Amino acid sequence: MKFDKIRKSFVRVFGGNILTESFIINNMRFFAILLIIIFVFISHRYSYLQQMSEIERLQRELKDAKYESLTISSSLTEAGRQTEIEKLIKQYGLEIDISNEPIYYIKE
Predict the structure, then answer these.
(1) What is the dihedral angle through the alpha carbons of 75, 80, 84, 86, rounded to the nearest 10 degrees?
(2) pTM of the model
(3) What angle do CA 81, 87, 93 make, to 5 degrees?
């Protein structure tokens, strides 16, 4: 008896008779809305994942730019030191002497 009910339900579902029944026809709007919600959810998740990968890429790029900026800043600081300038003057053989006298300002 129980096996016959299961068999009839199985035949009804996979035989295609369930699609013509009033339950499916009456709830067609619900199924359409459910399908639309599923598509919206999938597209929203896809766009979210794309935005997250873009954010991660930009963060890596920003980190690289910060490191490059620090490297350039430290090399400029080092190149601007008085001892480095004196080495470059001697290296290129320029006839420039370092003054030991203080700087005088002319006021008008």
Answers:
(1) 160
(2) 0.53
(3) 135
